Amino acid sequence: MFKNYLKIAYRNLMRNKSFSLINISGLAVGMASAILIFLWIHNEISYDQFHEKKDRIYEAWNRDVFSGKLQCWNTTPKVLARTLEKDFPEVESAVRVNWPSSFLLSIGEKNFAGRGNMVDSLFFDMFTIPFVKGNSQTALKETYSIVITETFAKTLFGNEEPMGKTIRIDNKDNFTVTAVVKDAPNNTRFRFDYIMPWSYLRKQGNDDEYWGNNSTRTYVLLKPNASLASINEKMKTLRKTYDSDEPKGEMFLYPISRWRLYSKFENGKESGGLIEFVRMFSIIAIFLLLIACINFMNLSTARSERRAKEVGIRKVVGASKFSLIGQFLGESILIAFISGVLAIIIVQLSLPAFNKLTDKILFIDYSNAYSWLFFIGFILFTGMIAGSYPAFYLSAFKPVKVLKGTFQKTRALITPRRVLVVLQFTFAIILIISTIIVKEQIHYAKNRETGYDKNKLAYMFIVGDIEKNYELIKNELLSSGTAVSITKTSAPMTQGWSDTWGIEWEGKAKDDKTDFDRFCADDHLATTVGLQMVAGRDFDLKKYNTDSSAVLLNESAVKAMGFKDPLGKTIRDNGKEWHVVGVFKDFILQSPFFPTKPMVIEGAKGWFNVMHIKYNDKNNMAANVKSTEAIVKKYNPMYTFEHQFVDDEYNTKFKAEQRTGTLATLFAGLTIFISCLGLFGLAAYTAESRIKEIGVRKVLGASITSITSLLSKDFIKLVLISFVIASPIAWWLMYNWLQNYPYRISIHWWIFLAAALTSIAIALITVSYHAIRAAKANPVKSLRTE
Amino acid sequence: MINITNLEKVYRTDEVETIALNKLSIEIKKGEFVAVMGPSGCGKSTLLNILGLLDDPDAGSFVFNGTEIAKYNERQRAELRKHNIGFVFQSFNLIDELTVFENVELPLIYTGVKASERKQKVDEVLEKVQIMHRRNHYPQQLSGGQQQRVAVARAVVNNPKLILADEPTGNLDSSNGNEVMELLTNLNEQGTTIIMVTHSEHDARYSHRIIRMLDGQTVTENILI
Description:
The complex is a heterodimer.
Chain A (H helix, E strand, L loop, with lengths): L1 H14 L1 H29 L11 E10 L2 E5 L2 E2 L2 H8 L3 E7 L6 E4 L2 E4 L2 E4 L3 H4 L4 E3 L11 E5 H8 L8 E4 L3 E9 L12 E4 H6 L10 E9 L5 H8 L2 H5 L7 E6 L3 H4 L2 E2 L2 E2 L3 H29 L1 H13 L4 H38 L10 H27 L3 H5 L12 H31 L10 E5 L8 H10 L3 E7 L9 E2 L3 E2 L10 E5 L4 H5 L3 E4 L13 E5 H7 L8 E4 L2 E9 L14 E4 L7 E6 L5 H15 L8 E2 H6 L3 H35 L1 H9 L4 H35 L10 H28 L2 H6 L2
Parallel strand pairs in A: 7-12, 9-11, 21-26, 23-25
Antiparallel strand pairs in A: 1-2, 1-13, 1-14, 3-13, 4-13, 5-6, 5-10, 8-11, 9-12, 10-11, 15-16, 17-27, 17-28, 18-27, 19-21, 20-24, 22-25, 23-26, 24-25
Helix pairs in contact in A: 1-12, 2-10, 2-12, 2-21, 10-13, 10-15, 10-21, 12-13, 15-21, 15-23, 15-24, 16-19, 21-24, 23-24
Chain B lengths: L1 E11 L4 E12 L4 E5 L6 H8 L7 E6 L2 E2 L5 H11 E4 L11 H11 L4 H14 L15 H13 L5 E5 L7 H16 L3 E5 L3 H4 L4 E6 L2 E7 L2
Parallel strand pairs in B: 3-8, 3-9, 6-7, 7-8
Antiparallel strand pairs in B: 1-2, 1-4, 4-5, 9-10
């Protein structure tokens, strides 16, 4: 019986090639989109879930009030790890992982850059990172030991045996390779090329026991059966015991299962996070698949008159309804199978682009049995969904009616087919509206006044000998005419690295915990980056030698401090006094979607990591960069020259939103494509089934235009209904999305008009092909067919 | 074999009520060859549908092989039908996507006959209707007479006790029609009961008995043998 079904299914496919093509291509595109999204979702939900001890792994977090809001963050004092081990019997071990460092690694004469962390020695005991060579017990025992990944070992040593080899760090310390581990998978927060022991960090003098310095991440492994609730209760008062500065601050342990998807806190509680994207993407995947399935349903039932006779005969010769349902489901599963194979090809071809778009390394694991199981399940599921409605619809035909020609198609106002088309277009229109709004919002923020001049402004980090030779480099850049102005700063202009609520000034209220962005610059900052001064002047060490303790305030800071006449006022920060010499217009330091914060820029007595260069626009920019490279190389020969343009860097602030925009465009495009395939098929069917009516109308004098519009009208009505349903949903979704951005557009009516016109135009173009063809046909022919 | 009493069937549309069968009573014995005749709309097709268990009566009794089946539901009717009744239609009603062999094989598949046995039975019956040489052709590749012979083969492949033929020669020329009628007569001679609806006096003469209907009732019965 099964063979018989397969045969009929195959012959039906071949007989109606255009319908098969529409069905298969629509389903394939829908399935491919769903698979891509599933890969993304799988990657997200499996983040750090492969550690064998994951049920016992936690991260230490803080909860405290800042700027009037209860906030949570996960950087901890370095001293926390040992304290937890000492004070809490439930804790098996605590491991610190510091920020990625970028040491210069040398082997002989060759230099390498890599990304590494310094960690406590039990790191490999807590987290499951398989060893290729060496073992977790001895890997980080000695201070001068280094663990490298397989790939990094290849980079450093080629095919030579890496174990026991020496790597020189920052040109001063020799490290021995004690272990080689597998590369981190694509779903972990721990990404590194090498791992070094915490004891080296201590040796460099970077360890401290200060509770006020939240400077590292602390991971905790609890003993089996330890109660999280009781530990968290005790951790609430940990700072009270040890931290005299911030005794009210609470701490808590946060489980590994929630790190990736849930760790967005608002008012001290979990609030959304990546899980919202996971949910949204799941919905989109399901809808894309559903829309493709709807095509199949609509086209199958539209063609039902052709299949009706077969159903009738089969029933007469003894088929039960059940066996017919089986037959039709079998057909849809066959189509789903063909589409599924095509979908895998599409996925494989589009993965590189999708990975680039999502900034991930996703792949299909063909060696994993679960992948295949999922794939087969997915095909069956798709086939069942697509085939269910047609199967029940077709198998319900009464043989008496279909075999005796009294079979009538419905002329009802609301048919399932129309409802399904409306559903498809509703989804498409929601996506069209969302796409326009996301793009508008990005455009709006991009056009926002930055507050400084990004043009021809570049920066580089002060690494190696740049600090020592700073004056020489600066002078040579200026005297060679490469640069017109140079300043040292604490951070790039596009990044806020430091903030504080500890600034003091005359008249500050006792409970005032206003948070200030803290920035430092040595000399000629306003000139270099083009700040707009509204009062006072720029730093100028040559003219005013007291400027090393000068400070610039932005307008918001002046307002926050309540200064009527800020120039000459003194403020204190961390025990140092600074005198105000100038006020500048607020500039965007961090997100262009958020209001600017009060900001202080402290003078040459501050700390510096970055050098900003305003290039001479009389020269060609490439020449400027080349000469800068030559000069910097001369004074800092060990390091590779790395240098960023501020406006490129500034553009990355829109990365997340641009990605959202691109994804919305992509999904909208796919939805429209699949929906239009279906519409195209339906239009063909309608034109065919009304061929006699069209013939009669033409004989009676109807024009081609009037017939085309007659055939298109019905579909346009459906699109309009979809628009009416989609608009409020889209408005609500995008209204909520925009709430994430204090600096945002309002949703204009023209966006909806544009979406309506776009969707109508698309539908019209799709439908008109068949409508015009039917209208142009010779009525003599069409009337003879009856 | 068949005993119907006071059978009624009414078709309703929004405004019109059509009485198709009006307290109809007929008895058909095992092994009979009965022709049903009458003008269009007299109810003969309705009668055939009910006899063929494709439709259910609104009232009255229908005893098939000693069992009252007027109140059977669709599944029960389907079960009874596939083991006992074969159909021959005016428009052949072969499935276009299946070959001659596959069309004839279909009833055997639905009654769960094994593949090897199916092949043997189908070949046997194709031989009998002399269409063996076309077993791998599709219906469109055959003449009308050949198609109807395939349809007859399909109707008898399961050895049904009853064959219902709805104007089996209606779409055929006279020589092809005669061939089909000969085929039916042969089957009847081998013991199969046949009920045939026809407009053709010529065809009716092949039967044992002619039931003439008008307005949902029998008017006369002519016994021919």
